Amino acid sequence: MIELLTETAISEPSRIRGLEMPWNRVMGSTEGPAGAARALGPWHPQEFMAECVETVPEAGGMMTFVFRRCDGAPLAFRAGQYVNIAFPVNGEDQDPVDRSYSLSSSPTQPWTFNITVKSDPAGLVSPWVHENVKPGMVLDMLGPVGAFHLPDADRRARYLLLAAGAGITPIMSMVRTIHSLPGQADVVVLYHGAEAGGYAFHQELAYIASVDSRVKVFYSLGNRSKPEGWEWLSGRLTAAMIDQVAPDANGRQVYACGPEGYLNTAAELLKKVGVDDTSINMEFFSGDRQTLLEYQEELALAADIAEEIAEEIADSAQDYYESQPTAFGLYEPGYDAEGTLTATGLPLETVDPDAPRSEDGSSGVGEEPGSSDASSFDTVGTGSLTLSFMRTGINVRVDPDEHILEVAQRAGVRIGANCKEGMCGSCKVVKLSGEVEMNHQGGIRAREIDAGKFLPCCSTARTDMVIDA
Ligand code: FES
Fold first, then answer.
1. What is the pTM of this model?
2. Which of 85, 130, 386, 418 has the most CB atoms lying inside 10 A of its own CB?
3. Which atom of ligand 1 is nearest the CA belonging to 456?
4. How far is the CA of 232 from the centre of ligand 1 (A)?
5. Which atom of ligand 1 is nearest to the CA of 444?
Protein backbone atom coordinates (compact mmCIF):
# COMPACT_ATOMS: atom_id res chain seq x y z
CA MET A 1 0.00 0.00 0.00
CA ILE A 2 1.27 3.49 -0.82
CA GLU A 3 1.62 5.76 2.16
CA LEU A 4 0.24 9.20 1.35
CA LEU A 5 0.65 10.77 4.74
CA THR A 6 4.33 10.70 5.45
CA GLU A 7 6.42 12.86 7.67
CA THR A 8 8.88 13.54 4.86
CA ALA A 9 10.07 17.11 5.13
CA ILE A 10 9.42 19.13 1.99
CA SER A 11 11.75 22.04 1.54
CA GLU A 12 10.58 25.58 0.84
CA PRO A 13 10.04 26.63 -2.77
CA SER A 14 12.73 28.74 -4.34
CA ARG A 15 11.34 32.16 -5.20
CA ILE A 16 12.22 35.45 -6.78
CA ARG A 17 12.51 38.38 -4.46
CA GLY A 18 9.37 40.31 -3.53
CA LEU A 19 5.99 40.54 -5.22
CA GLU A 20 5.13 42.03 -8.54
CA MET A 21 1.71 42.34 -10.12
CA PRO A 22 1.44 40.83 -13.59
CA TRP A 23 0.56 44.11 -15.30
CA ASN A 24 3.59 45.86 -13.89
CA ARG A 25 6.04 44.29 -16.30
CA VAL A 26 3.56 44.30 -19.15
CA MET A 27 3.00 48.04 -18.87
CA GLY A 28 6.71 48.72 -18.50
CA SER A 29 7.66 46.62 -21.48
CA THR A 30 9.04 48.37 -24.53
CA GLU A 31 8.47 45.26 -26.61
CA GLY A 32 4.80 45.97 -27.18
CA PRO A 33 3.17 42.89 -25.71
CA ALA A 34 -0.27 41.78 -26.78
CA GLY A 35 -3.18 44.15 -26.28
CA ALA A 36 -5.09 41.59 -24.25
CA ALA A 37 -2.26 41.49 -21.71
CA ARG A 38 -2.25 45.26 -21.54
CA ALA A 39 -5.92 45.21 -20.71
CA LEU A 40 -4.75 44.11 -17.26
CA GLY A 41 -3.53 47.62 -16.50
CA PRO A 42 -5.91 48.83 -13.80
CA TRP A 43 -5.43 52.49 -14.42
CA HIS A 44 -8.81 54.06 -15.04
CA PRO A 45 -12.25 53.68 -13.59
CA GLN A 46 -14.52 52.60 -16.42
CA GLU A 47 -18.25 52.35 -16.82
CA PHE A 48 -19.34 48.89 -17.78
CA MET A 49 -22.16 46.40 -17.45
CA ALA A 50 -21.61 43.13 -15.67
CA GLU A 51 -23.67 39.99 -15.41
CA CYS A 52 -23.98 38.01 -12.20
CA VAL A 53 -22.92 34.44 -12.95
CA GLU A 54 -22.84 32.83 -9.52
CA THR A 55 -23.85 33.45 -5.93
CA VAL A 56 -21.95 31.77 -3.12
CA PRO A 57 -23.24 31.90 0.46
CA GLU A 58 -20.49 32.68 2.96
CA ALA A 59 -20.37 32.41 6.74
CA GLY A 60 -21.34 35.44 8.81
CA GLY A 61 -24.44 36.40 6.81
CA MET A 62 -22.36 37.28 3.78
CA MET A 63 -22.87 36.32 0.15
CA THR A 64 -20.37 36.41 -2.67
CA PHE A 65 -21.65 37.54 -6.07
CA VAL A 66 -19.50 36.52 -9.01
CA PHE A 67 -19.73 38.76 -12.10
CA ARG A 68 -18.31 38.90 -15.57
CA ARG A 69 -18.25 41.94 -17.79
CA CYS A 70 -20.87 41.88 -20.52
CA ASP A 71 -18.33 43.13 -23.06
CA GLY A 72 -16.12 40.12 -22.44
CA ALA A 73 -13.13 42.13 -21.25
CA PRO A 74 -11.26 41.29 -18.07
CA LEU A 75 -11.79 43.59 -15.11
CA ALA A 76 -8.52 45.30 -14.35
CA PHE A 77 -8.17 46.33 -10.72
CA ARG A 78 -5.78 46.27 -7.80
CA ALA A 79 -6.31 44.03 -4.78
CA GLY A 80 -8.21 46.16 -2.24
CA GLN A 81 -10.10 48.37 -4.70
CA TYR A 82 -13.87 48.57 -5.05
CA VAL A 83 -16.56 49.14 -7.66
CA ASN A 84 -19.58 51.43 -7.53
CA ILE A 85 -22.70 49.52 -8.51
CA ALA A 86 -26.11 50.93 -9.43
CA PHE A 87 -28.83 48.72 -7.92
CA PRO A 88 -32.42 49.13 -9.16
CA VAL A 89 -33.69 48.85 -5.60
CA ASN A 90 -36.85 50.86 -6.32
CA GLY A 91 -37.64 49.23 -9.66
CA GLU A 92 -36.26 49.58 -13.15
CA ASP A 93 -38.20 52.78 -13.84
CA GLN A 94 -36.76 54.61 -10.81
CA ASP A 95 -33.28 55.98 -10.25
CA PRO A 96 -30.96 53.23 -9.08
CA VAL A 97 -29.20 53.45 -5.72
CA ASP A 98 -25.40 53.46 -5.88
CA ARG A 99 -23.30 51.53 -3.43
CA SER A 100 -19.60 50.74 -3.33
CA TYR A 101 -18.45 47.20 -2.67
CA SER A 102 -14.91 45.95 -2.34
CA LEU A 103 -13.77 43.35 -4.80
CA SER A 104 -13.00 40.18 -2.88
CA SER A 105 -11.51 38.18 -5.74
CA SER A 106 -7.98 38.43 -7.06
CA PRO A 107 -7.15 40.66 -10.04
CA THR A 108 -4.82 37.91 -11.21
CA GLN A 109 -7.99 36.03 -12.23
CA PRO A 110 -9.61 38.96 -13.99
CA TRP A 111 -12.17 37.24 -16.22
CA THR A 112 -14.66 37.12 -13.44
CA PHE A 113 -14.70 39.22 -10.29
CA ASN A 114 -16.43 38.97 -6.94
CA ILE A 115 -18.01 41.26 -4.47
CA THR A 116 -18.99 39.92 -1.05
CA VAL A 117 -21.91 41.59 0.68
CA LYS A 118 -22.98 41.31 4.28
CA SER A 119 -26.71 41.67 4.68
CA ASP A 120 -27.52 44.41 7.14
CA PRO A 121 -31.22 44.06 7.99
CA ALA A 122 -31.40 47.80 8.70
CA GLY A 123 -29.76 48.67 5.38
CA LEU A 124 -31.62 49.67 2.24
CA VAL A 125 -29.43 47.97 -0.30
CA SER A 126 -27.67 44.93 1.14
CA PRO A 127 -30.85 42.94 1.96
CA TRP A 128 -32.15 43.75 -1.51
CA VAL A 129 -28.90 42.55 -3.03
CA HIS A 130 -29.08 39.25 -1.16
CA GLU A 131 -32.65 38.77 -2.19
CA ASN A 132 -32.55 39.91 -5.79
CA VAL A 133 -29.13 39.65 -7.37
CA LYS A 134 -29.13 36.27 -9.08
CA PRO A 135 -27.21 34.70 -11.96
CA GLY A 136 -28.35 36.40 -15.14
CA MET A 137 -28.94 39.85 -13.62
CA VAL A 138 -27.03 42.64 -15.34
CA LEU A 139 -25.92 45.70 -13.38
CA ASP A 140 -24.29 49.00 -14.22
CA MET A 141 -20.89 49.37 -12.65
CA LEU A 142 -18.14 51.90 -12.41
CA GLY A 143 -14.63 51.11 -11.32
CA PRO A 144 -12.14 50.17 -10.20
CA VAL A 145 -11.87 52.92 -7.60
CA GLY A 146 -9.92 53.41 -4.41
CA ALA A 147 -6.34 53.76 -3.36
CA PHE A 148 -6.50 51.17 -0.56
CA HIS A 149 -4.60 48.45 -2.39
CA LEU A 150 -1.40 46.48 -2.55
CA PRO A 151 1.51 48.10 -4.35
CA ASP A 152 2.24 47.01 -7.91
CA ALA A 153 5.73 45.91 -6.96
CA ASP A 154 7.24 45.38 -3.53
CA ARG A 155 10.70 43.92 -3.01
CA ARG A 156 10.04 43.35 0.70
CA ALA A 157 6.33 42.45 0.68
CA ARG A 158 5.95 42.14 4.43
CA TYR A 159 2.33 42.79 5.35
CA LEU A 160 0.13 42.77 8.39
CA LEU A 161 -3.49 42.52 7.23
CA LEU A 162 -6.07 43.40 9.86
CA ALA A 163 -9.75 42.72 9.24
CA ALA A 164 -12.87 42.95 11.35
CA GLY A 165 -16.22 41.54 10.23
CA ALA A 166 -17.12 42.51 6.68
CA GLY A 167 -13.77 44.29 6.46
CA ILE A 168 -12.35 40.95 5.39
CA THR A 169 -13.48 41.45 1.76
CA PRO A 170 -10.66 43.67 0.42
CA ILE A 171 -8.21 41.81 2.68
CA MET A 172 -9.38 38.53 1.12
CA SER A 173 -8.62 39.95 -2.30
CA MET A 174 -5.11 40.76 -1.08
CA VAL A 175 -4.56 37.29 0.38
CA ARG A 176 -5.83 35.60 -2.78
CA THR A 177 -3.66 37.85 -4.91
CA ILE A 178 -0.49 37.19 -2.91
CA HIS A 179 -1.21 33.47 -2.87
CA SER A 180 -1.58 33.48 -6.65
CA LEU A 181 1.73 35.27 -7.27
CA PRO A 182 5.22 33.90 -7.16
CA GLY A 183 7.78 35.80 -5.12
CA GLN A 184 8.88 36.18 -1.55
CA ALA A 185 6.35 37.61 0.86
CA ASP A 186 5.56 37.43 4.52
CA VAL A 187 1.93 37.98 5.35
CA VAL A 188 0.15 37.90 8.69
CA VAL A 189 -3.64 38.10 8.71
CA LEU A 190 -5.48 38.89 11.94
CA TYR A 191 -9.23 38.52 11.49
CA HIS A 192 -11.67 39.66 14.19
CA GLY A 193 -15.16 38.22 14.16
CA ALA A 194 -18.17 38.31 16.44
CA GLU A 195 -18.91 34.60 16.60
CA ALA A 196 -17.04 31.37 16.06
CA GLY A 197 -19.05 30.31 13.01
CA GLY A 198 -19.12 33.78 11.44
CA TYR A 199 -15.77 34.05 9.69
CA ALA A 200 -16.37 34.39 5.95
CA PHE A 201 -13.77 32.60 3.81
CA HIS A 202 -12.34 30.69 6.77
CA GLN A 203 -12.09 27.44 4.84
CA GLU A 204 -10.18 29.06 2.03
CA LEU A 205 -7.99 31.01 4.44
CA ALA A 206 -7.19 27.79 6.28
CA TYR A 207 -6.35 26.11 2.99
CA ILE A 208 -4.11 28.95 1.84
CA ALA A 209 -2.32 29.05 5.20
CA SER A 210 -1.80 25.29 5.01
CA VAL A 211 -0.21 25.28 1.56
CA ASP A 212 1.45 28.70 1.38
CA SER A 213 4.11 29.19 4.02
CA ARG A 214 4.15 32.92 3.25
CA VAL A 215 0.71 33.41 4.75
CA LYS A 216 -0.24 33.04 8.42
CA VAL A 217 -3.82 33.52 9.55
CA PHE A 218 -5.01 34.25 13.10
CA TYR A 219 -8.57 34.68 14.31
CA SER A 220 -9.85 36.52 17.33
CA LEU A 221 -13.31 36.41 18.81
CA GLY A 222 -14.01 40.06 19.58
CA ASN A 223 -15.28 40.57 23.07
CA ARG A 224 -17.28 37.36 23.19
CA SER A 225 -16.55 34.52 25.53
CA LYS A 226 -14.80 31.60 23.90
CA PRO A 227 -16.95 28.60 22.98
CA GLU A 228 -15.63 25.20 23.89
CA GLY A 229 -12.87 24.04 21.61
CA TRP A 230 -11.94 27.54 20.41
CA GLU A 231 -8.20 27.51 19.98
CA TRP A 232 -7.65 30.93 18.55
CA LEU A 233 -7.29 34.30 20.18
CA SER A 234 -10.04 36.05 21.99
CA GLY A 235 -10.75 39.65 22.83
CA ARG A 236 -10.55 42.93 20.99
CA LEU A 237 -7.45 44.12 19.28
CA THR A 238 -4.68 45.04 21.72
CA ALA A 239 -1.02 45.95 21.41
CA ALA A 240 -0.16 42.62 23.04
CA MET A 241 -2.21 40.80 20.41
CA ILE A 242 -0.45 42.62 17.58
CA ASP A 243 2.88 41.73 19.22
CA GLN A 244 1.81 38.14 19.53
CA VAL A 245 0.88 37.66 15.86
CA ALA A 246 3.46 40.01 14.36
CA PRO A 247 6.29 40.92 16.72
CA ASP A 248 7.89 42.73 13.81
CA ALA A 249 4.78 44.79 13.01
CA ASN A 250 6.87 47.92 12.69
CA GLY A 251 8.68 46.42 9.71
CA ARG A 252 5.47 45.70 7.83
CA GLN A 253 3.02 47.57 5.69
CA VAL A 254 -0.30 47.38 7.49
CA TYR A 255 -3.63 47.19 5.66
CA ALA A 256 -6.66 47.38 7.93
CA CYS A 257 -10.34 47.30 7.12
CA GLY A 258 -13.32 47.23 9.45
CA PRO A 259 -15.76 49.43 11.33
CA GLU A 260 -14.68 52.87 12.39
CA GLY A 261 -14.21 52.08 16.10
CA TYR A 262 -12.02 49.12 15.29
CA LEU A 263 -9.86 51.14 12.92
CA ASN A 264 -9.47 54.03 15.33
CA THR A 265 -8.26 51.58 17.96
CA ALA A 266 -6.02 49.87 15.44
CA ALA A 267 -4.44 53.18 14.45
CA GLU A 268 -3.60 53.97 18.09
CA LEU A 269 -2.28 50.51 18.86
CA LEU A 270 -0.18 50.34 15.73
CA LYS A 271 1.49 53.59 16.72
CA LYS A 272 2.08 52.14 20.17
CA VAL A 273 3.90 49.13 18.74
CA GLY A 274 6.05 51.38 16.62
CA VAL A 275 4.34 51.27 13.22
CA ASP A 276 4.94 54.46 11.35
CA ASP A 277 1.91 56.38 10.02
CA THR A 278 3.19 56.05 6.50
CA SER A 279 3.00 52.25 6.78
CA ILE A 280 -0.66 52.24 7.79
CA ASN A 281 -3.38 51.94 5.14
CA MET A 282 -6.97 51.88 6.26
CA GLU A 283 -10.42 51.53 4.85
CA PHE A 284 -13.64 51.98 6.78
CA PHE A 285 -16.67 49.72 6.59
CA SER A 286 -20.01 50.23 8.26
CA GLY A 287 -23.26 48.55 7.36
CA ASP A 288 -23.64 48.80 3.62
CA ARG A 289 -20.09 49.36 2.64
CA GLN A 290 -19.07 52.93 3.13
CA THR A 291 -15.82 54.20 1.91
CA LEU A 292 -13.84 56.56 4.01
CA LEU A 293 -10.32 56.18 2.85
CA GLU A 294 -7.12 57.63 4.11
CA TYR A 295 -7.45 60.00 1.24
CA GLN A 296 -4.55 62.33 1.61
CA GLU A 297 -2.10 59.48 1.62
CA GLU A 298 -3.99 57.64 -1.04
CA LEU A 299 -4.38 60.56 -3.35
CA ALA A 300 -0.65 61.16 -3.02
CA LEU A 301 -0.12 57.55 -3.97
CA ALA A 302 -2.52 57.85 -6.88
CA ALA A 303 -0.69 60.97 -8.01
CA ASP A 304 2.62 59.06 -7.96
CA ILE A 305 1.11 56.30 -10.04
CA ALA A 306 -0.42 58.85 -12.38
CA GLU A 307 2.94 60.50 -12.86
CA GLU A 308 4.63 57.19 -13.52
CA ILE A 309 2.07 56.18 -16.12
CA ALA A 310 1.95 59.62 -17.68
CA GLU A 311 5.69 59.29 -18.28
CA GLU A 312 5.19 55.91 -19.89
CA ILE A 313 2.46 57.28 -22.05
CA ALA A 314 4.42 60.34 -23.00
CA ASP A 315 7.17 57.97 -24.13
CA SER A 316 4.96 55.82 -26.24
CA ALA A 317 1.53 57.37 -26.47
CA GLN A 318 0.73 55.90 -29.84
CA ASP A 319 1.77 52.38 -28.81
CA TYR A 320 -0.33 52.77 -25.73
CA TYR A 321 -3.49 53.77 -27.53
CA GLU A 322 -3.00 51.20 -30.23
CA SER A 323 -2.55 48.54 -27.60
CA GLN A 324 -5.96 49.23 -26.05
CA PRO A 325 -8.65 46.74 -27.06
CA THR A 326 -10.74 49.27 -28.91
CA ALA A 327 -12.92 46.56 -30.30
CA PHE A 328 -14.49 46.47 -26.85
CA GLY A 329 -14.86 50.24 -26.86
CA LEU A 330 -13.94 50.25 -23.20
CA TYR A 331 -11.02 52.48 -22.66
CA GLU A 332 -11.46 56.18 -22.63
CA PRO A 333 -8.31 57.54 -21.04
CA GLY A 334 -8.87 61.09 -19.87
CA TYR A 335 -5.47 62.31 -21.00
CA ASP A 336 -3.21 62.44 -23.97
CA ALA A 337 0.51 62.32 -24.61
CA GLU A 338 0.94 65.73 -23.00
CA GLY A 339 -1.57 65.31 -20.24
CA THR A 340 -1.46 63.57 -16.88
CA LEU A 341 -3.73 60.92 -15.48
CA THR A 342 -5.12 63.10 -12.74
CA ALA A 343 -8.88 62.87 -12.88
CA THR A 344 -10.07 66.34 -13.59
CA GLY A 345 -13.70 65.55 -14.11
CA LEU A 346 -15.77 66.01 -17.18
CA PRO A 347 -16.77 69.50 -18.20
CA LEU A 348 -20.16 70.43 -16.88
CA GLU A 349 -22.83 72.29 -18.69
CA THR A 350 -25.79 73.97 -17.24
CA VAL A 351 -28.86 71.86 -17.75
CA ASP A 352 -32.04 73.55 -18.76
CA PRO A 353 -34.52 72.29 -16.20
CA ASP A 354 -37.24 72.19 -18.82
CA ALA A 355 -35.22 70.24 -21.33
CA PRO A 356 -35.53 66.44 -21.49
CA ARG A 357 -32.85 65.10 -19.17
CA SER A 358 -31.36 61.92 -20.58
CA GLU A 359 -31.88 59.28 -23.20
CA ASP A 360 -33.35 57.00 -20.59
CA GLY A 361 -35.74 59.68 -19.55
CA SER A 362 -34.67 59.68 -15.92
CA SER A 363 -34.29 63.03 -14.33
CA GLY A 364 -33.72 61.93 -10.75
CA VAL A 365 -35.82 64.86 -9.69
CA GLY A 366 -38.64 64.18 -7.33
CA GLU A 367 -40.13 67.61 -7.57
CA GLU A 368 -40.49 69.80 -10.60
CA PRO A 369 -38.32 72.88 -10.51
CA GLY A 370 -40.27 75.99 -9.90
CA SER A 371 -42.87 74.24 -7.81
CA SER A 372 -41.40 75.98 -4.78
CA ASP A 373 -40.30 79.55 -4.68
CA ALA A 374 -36.76 79.90 -3.37
CA SER A 375 -37.27 83.58 -2.68
CA SER A 376 -39.47 82.61 0.29
CA PHE A 377 -36.76 80.37 1.83
CA ASP A 378 -34.63 81.38 4.80
CA THR A 379 -31.13 82.37 3.82
CA VAL A 380 -28.13 81.32 5.91
CA GLY A 381 -24.36 81.82 5.65
CA THR A 382 -22.27 84.42 3.98
CA GLY A 383 -20.72 84.49 0.55
CA SER A 384 -21.15 85.94 -2.88
CA LEU A 385 -23.26 83.13 -4.41
CA THR A 386 -26.60 81.63 -3.42
CA LEU A 387 -27.41 77.93 -3.45
CA SER A 388 -31.12 77.21 -3.25
CA PHE A 389 -31.90 73.74 -1.91
CA MET A 390 -35.43 73.09 -3.10
CA ARG A 391 -36.39 70.02 -1.05
CA THR A 392 -34.94 71.41 2.18
CA GLY A 393 -36.32 74.85 1.49
CA ILE A 394 -33.25 76.87 2.34
CA ASN A 395 -30.91 79.28 0.61
CA VAL A 396 -27.25 79.02 1.52
CA ARG A 397 -24.74 81.73 0.72
CA VAL A 398 -21.31 80.40 -0.34
CA ASP A 399 -18.02 81.61 -1.65
CA PRO A 400 -16.84 80.24 -4.99
CA ASP A 401 -13.97 78.32 -3.38
CA GLU A 402 -16.13 76.43 -0.85
CA HIS A 403 -17.10 72.83 -1.47
CA ILE A 404 -20.84 72.64 -1.82
CA LEU A 405 -21.33 69.54 0.33
CA GLU A 406 -19.66 71.05 3.34
CA VAL A 407 -21.72 74.22 3.41
CA ALA A 408 -24.91 72.36 2.58
CA GLN A 409 -24.47 69.87 5.40
CA ARG A 410 -23.57 72.68 7.78
CA ALA A 411 -26.85 74.35 6.86
CA GLY A 412 -28.79 71.15 7.60
CA VAL A 413 -29.33 69.91 4.04
CA ARG A 414 -29.44 66.12 4.16
CA ILE A 415 -27.02 64.82 1.58
CA GLY A 416 -25.44 61.42 2.27
CA ALA A 417 -21.70 61.26 1.76
CA ASN A 418 -18.94 58.78 2.33
CA CYS A 419 -15.61 59.50 0.73
CA LYS A 420 -15.93 63.26 0.29
CA GLU A 421 -13.42 63.04 -2.52
CA GLY A 422 -15.56 62.40 -5.58
CA MET A 423 -14.89 58.68 -5.60
CA CYS A 424 -17.85 56.81 -4.15
CA GLY A 425 -20.79 58.59 -5.76
CA SER A 426 -22.85 58.57 -2.57
CA CYS A 427 -23.42 62.34 -2.45
CA LYS A 428 -24.79 62.61 -6.01
CA VAL A 429 -27.55 65.22 -6.40
CA VAL A 430 -29.32 66.95 -9.27
CA LYS A 431 -28.54 70.49 -10.32
CA LEU A 432 -31.65 72.27 -11.54
CA SER A 433 -29.83 75.38 -12.65
CA GLY A 434 -26.49 77.10 -12.30
CA GLU A 435 -22.96 75.96 -12.93
CA VAL A 436 -20.50 73.97 -10.88
CA GLU A 437 -16.88 73.07 -11.26
CA MET A 438 -16.42 69.43 -10.37
CA ASN A 439 -13.16 67.56 -9.77
CA HIS A 440 -14.28 64.00 -9.30
CA GLN A 441 -12.30 60.78 -9.05
CA GLY A 442 -14.63 58.48 -10.93
CA GLY A 443 -17.68 58.63 -8.66
CA ILE A 444 -20.08 59.75 -11.39
CA ARG A 445 -20.89 58.51 -14.85
CA ALA A 446 -20.79 60.69 -17.95
CA ARG A 447 -24.47 60.12 -18.62
CA GLU A 448 -25.34 61.14 -15.09
CA ILE A 449 -23.51 64.40 -15.63
CA ASP A 450 -25.45 64.79 -18.87
CA ALA A 451 -28.60 64.25 -16.85
CA GLY A 452 -27.71 67.20 -14.61
CA LYS A 453 -26.24 65.33 -11.66
CA PHE A 454 -23.09 66.29 -9.80
CA LEU A 455 -21.09 65.38 -6.72
CA PRO A 456 -21.26 68.28 -4.26
CA CYS A 457 -18.34 66.93 -2.19
CA CYS A 458 -15.88 67.80 -4.93
CA SER A 459 -17.70 70.69 -6.58
CA THR A 460 -17.65 74.43 -6.14
CA ALA A 461 -20.30 76.82 -7.42
CA ARG A 462 -19.53 79.10 -10.32
CA THR A 463 -22.88 80.84 -10.35
CA ASP A 464 -25.98 80.95 -8.20
CA MET A 465 -27.50 77.49 -8.23
CA VAL A 466 -30.76 75.68 -7.65
CA ILE A 467 -30.24 72.16 -6.33
CA ASP A 468 -32.67 69.28 -5.87
CA ALA A 469 -31.78 68.44 -2.28
S1 FES B 1 -19.03 61.67 -0.94
FE2 FES B 1 -18.11 60.22 -2.25
S3 FES B 1 -18.42 61.13 -4.20
FE4 FES B 1 -19.13 62.63 -2.83
1. 0.68
2. 85
3. 4
4. 39
5. 3
